[in-house]
Design brief:
single chain; 22 helices; mainly alpha
């Protein structure tokens, strides 16, 4: 059995390398989780919601909240509150440690996805699988995820990105696995995407796009089977999120699938004076509306407080998020119709912002900035190669990347959205690296052969 396991992963050396990378990824995450980091504002909110849930006070940030608690995605605080309930107390360090173990799974998932994708670049995929083939590309992908600093730093606080990265990579791996078996395998893929949507609500829309791709991959005579697969996938997703949606309908007297706050991110994401930087929206709104704010408000008030005051002034009596949604749509329409050139530059700046840098200050250090750019470049190369050889897999991954890019162009442009994609990017980067290496070796062999003939 051990020989068979080693053979599937490049021999004993390849298996040892994989174990070493997995232990490295786990160790770095456990270290961050044990020591902890000063939490950012969202992490503080997640901590408060989890503690209030465990205490029986409901899904609330508390009296000090500056925005509705429903604006926060429920997945992470619900999970942490469940851990508190099981362990009989608010053991935040223990919760971080459990999340670190879950986060470390993204290293393994990146490796397994890269292994599956790399098969299409070998002349005999079955033979490659039996002999283990070249596992180096997959190991490279796993290593990139294991050491990516921003993922590690967020593991030191209660943030949703590491958990979402594991759920997304696990969901994609489950999709690739589901094609090799019966319809029941689609239950796992749908459940993982449902859990992902509870952690990062934007993935609810992306999951529906994935369902369309699943249905579209069919032969002429098996559309019913494709429909069944897509239906099972969506059904499992709905089962996961339905209890929270039903709770929201009862709590808000309207249909809220997962969370509120869409109006706020739409307005902030289309506020042209910010030049695409969401961190500048608050100060610019204060400067543009001196009748509503004092000059000191820009530094004293949080963004949601500033936007709430603006919404109340522009649409008195309307619920804040609905008012901001209305204002955001007006800005979007005005930008497209009245200032199309400026708005195009605005959107370009937002897209550049999310892809050109990782979140957290550590990603501005030269070595990590170079790592990020290498990851993105090799990931794009891997995606292009996949489009050449395996179009369905390329369509699946490309749709996820394009959807996140489009959402960032329309809403708030935060590099944290791309952070969730790091395991998928790393898997593709491994594929791109492996192809480039094989091409280089082939050219060297050709050059040596030519020299020998001469």
């Amino acid at each position: 059995m051990e020989k068979g396991l080693a053979a599937r992963h490049g021999g004993r050396l390849g298996l040892l390398a994989l174990v070493a990378i997995l232990l490295l990824g786990l160790g770095l995450r456990v270290g961050e989780a044990w020591d902890g980091r000063a939490p950012v504002y969202d992490a503080v909110a997640y901590e408060a919601i989890a503690a209030n849930l465990a205490a029986g006070d409901g899904f609330t940030v508390g009296a000090a909240a500056t925005q509705p608690s429903s604006n926060y995605s429920p997945g992470l605080p619900l999970f942490v509150a469940g851990l508190y309930e099981v362990t009989g107390g608010e053991h935040e360090r223990l919760a971080r440690l459990v999340l670190a173990f879950i986060g470390a799974l993204s290293v393994l998932f990146a490796y397994l996805i890269a292994r599956r994708l790399s098969r299409c670049f070998h002349p005999s995929p079955r033979q490659n699988e039996e002999k283990g083939g070249n596992v180096a590309p997959a190991l490279i992908g796993a290593l990139l995820v294991a050491i990516y600093p921003a993922l590690l730093e967020y593991q030191g606080m209660l943030m949703s990105e590491p958990l979402a990265a594991t759920l997304l990579s696990g969901g994609v791996l489950a999709l690739l696995w589901a094609w090799e078996g019966g319809w029941s395998r689609w239950l796992l893929a749908g459940a993982l995407f449902g859990a992902l949507a509870l952690v990062r609500p934007e993935y609810l829309a992306i999951a529906l796009l994935v369902a369309l791709i699943v249905f579209a991959r069919q032969r002429r005579d098996d559309w019913r089977l494709s429909l069944l697969r897509a239906a099972v996938f969506v059904g499992a997703l709905v089962v996961v999120i339905a209890p929270w949606t039903i709770r929201n309908i009862a709590a808000h007297d309207r249909f809220v699938p997962i969370s509120t706050g869409g109006g706020q991110v739409l307005f902030a994401g289309n506020y042209l004076p910010s030049h695409g930087n969401p961190e500048k929206v608050g100060a610019e709104v204060v400067a543009e509306n001196p009748d509503l704010f004092r000059s000191a408000d820009a530094g004293r008030l949080r963004l949601e407080q500033i936007l709430s005051r603006l919404a109340a002034a522009r649409y008195p009596g309307m619920e804040t998020d609905q008012a901001l949604s209305k204002l955001g749509k007006e800005q979007l329409w005005d930008g497209i119709t009245e200032e199309p050139v400026e708005y195009a530059g605005f959107v370009t700046a937002k897209i550049w912002r999310i892809w050109s840098q990782g979140p957290r200050d550590v990603m501005q250090e030269p070595v990590w900035k170079a790592l990020h750019w290498t990851l993105v470049a090799l990931g794009l190369l891997g995606l292009a190669l996949l489009a050449w050889r395996r179009r369905w897999e390329a369509l699946l991954l490309g749709t996820i990347f394009l959807a996140i890019t489009a959402l960032s162009a329309l809403l708030v442009a935060s590099p944290r959205r791309v952070l969730v994609l790091v395991p998928l990017l790393a898997a593709l980067a491994g594929v791109g690296t492996g192809w480039a290496w094989e091409e280089l070796r082939a050219r060297c062999r050709t050059g040596r052969a030519g020299t020998a003939i001469d």
